[in-house]
Amino acid sequence: MDRSILTQNFQDEPKILNNTPVLIIIGGATATGKSGLAIKLAERLESIILSADSRQVYREFTIGTAKPTRQEQNRVPHYLIDICDPIETLTVADYQMQAREILDRGGVQFLVGGTGLYIKAIARGMKIPRVAPQAELRSQLERLGQRTLYEMLQQVDTIAATRIHANDQVRTLRALEVFYVTGRPISEQQGEEPPSFPILQIALDSNLLEQRIAKRAGQMIEMGFATEVKTLCEKYGEALPLLNTLGYAEMRQYLRGEISLAEAERLTALHTRQFAKRQRTWFRADRSIEWFDSDAADLVDRVWARVEQFREDARSEL
């Protein structure tokens, strides 16, 4: 059987186990070794991995997103990778729906990545209005200015207005967008409905993260990152929003002749460190997460022992 599974198209496969899902989440900042650890653990359990990375869902964005290699995906089936084209928009609600479809198959599954909102959507059962971005509506609203927009929000959804800062245009626009599309305040459509199945949340951190990030930036260059970005620019145009994300924006500057390749590598590492700091802050805010040191020589054994304990506890509860 070819275990190189890149999407959720598993209708012809047997169910993993005919029982309740048991979910193991591995989160943390970029370059902490989440994927490598997950693959080793999933192999032992003959399980699968669901990606929780907001850029790995897009086809052709490979090197800059540190997407698992073909060989790694042959070792363990991966889902929620390469599920939409770069010109499409995958909302958090879309991601949540597809992840739940896979989780409903039952058995032990791994949810792995650094996109905290994706993980929270699954672990907390976030209620998310299924309203796709409305480009024309947003354009019309933006012309009114943030002050007017916020005053409109106060009129149609006072609860949301108390939760959103008066200067936060992104969230203000989203709240108004949902209201005008559905006719209901976004505050009435939000909340949480935690899943009933067992969940273990762990995260990785490293005291050597700066070195890890620098090494990854160099490896991306060696793997042909410049060629990947050049191809994407030629195919989709430089205005493609994804090309303005971490790593791709810096490489695009290099391709324009604005900076050297060495400078592109340096800036990518710098901006990645800044991003990793925000990821750490996000995950640290969740006290239910158990932390492990990525640099520990016995990391796999330590996490495996915790996973075994969790599985035993889950069996006694089900």
Largest sheet: 6 strands, parallel
CATH class of the domain at 21-126 and 193-207 and 279-317: Alpha Beta
User: How many β-strand stretches?
Assistant: 6
| SS-derived structural category | alpha/beta
CATH architecture of the domain at 21-126 and 193-207 and 279-317: 3-Layer(aba) Sandwich
Helix content: 40-55%
What is the first-to-last residue Cα distance?
31 Å
User: Might you state the CATH topology name of the domain at 21-126 and 193-207 and 279-317?
Assistant: Rossmann fold
Number of separate helices:
13
Order of helices and strands: EHEHEHEHHHHHEHHHHEH
Proportion of β residues? 5-15%
Descriptive terms for the model:
10% strand; Rossmann fold; Histone, subunit A; 6-stranded parallel sheet; alpha/beta; 48% helix; 318 residues; disordered N terminus
Q: Helices, strands, pairings?
A:
Elements: E1 21-28, H1 34-45, E2 48-51, H2 70-75, E3 78-79, H3 92-103, E4 107-112, H4 116-123, H5 135-142, H6 146-156, H7 158-163, H8 169-182, E5 199-205, H9 209-222, H10 225-236, H11 248-255, H12 261-284, E6 290-293, H13 299-317
Parallel strand pairs: 1-4, 1-5, 2-3, 2-4, 5-6
Helix pairs in contact: 3-4, 6-8, 9-12, 10-11, 11-12
Explain what you see:
- Among the domains are: 21-126 and 193-207 and 279-317, Rossmann fold (3-Layer(aba) Sandwich), CATH 3.40.50.300; 135-188, Histone, subunit A.
- α10 crosses α11 (248-255) and α11 runs antiparallel to α12 (261-284).
- The protein has a 6-stranded parallel β-sheet, with helices on both faces.
- It contains 13 helices and 6 strands.
- It starts with 20 loop residues before the first strand and ends with a helix.
- The protein is 48% helix and 10% strand.
- With 318 residues, the chain is of the alpha/beta class.
- The model is unreliable at 1-18 (pLDDT under 50).
